[in-house]
Amino acid sequence: MPNKTYTCEIQVRWGDSDRLGHVNNVLFVEYAQEARVKFFRDCIWTAGVQATATVVRKMEIEYLRPVTDESGPLTAEVYILHIGNSSFEVRHVMRDRHGHTCAVADSVLVGFDRKTDKSTPLADAVRTALAEYAVAAVVD
To answer: Would you indicate the residue range of the signal peptide (predicted)?
Structure first.
């Protein structure tokens, strides 16, 4: 288990559902992004870490249970699976209002230099803040 797990609420919006009444799978990317943004806002930047650019390099989602309009709000748990030199992996676990796990999304984010359009090493302060939410023994 991680040292700390960040938890937030994600609203299921009326327009998120497809014609079958299920939340469209692509919306889980938005849900994960919303949870990740809240995590950075509430846990990383408020810890005195200066905001730096990151980009999503890879994302995988395992869909475990359908989400409908009635399933929400969802609870998203966010923690860190791995911290490397210039990248880190975030796990997002999304549960419906009854506590059932609906999806698990893993994202690899990379520190990014806007001037060179290339990856850049993560600042020590970022690595330290992320480590508080990391599973054991994942920091390179």
So the answer is: none
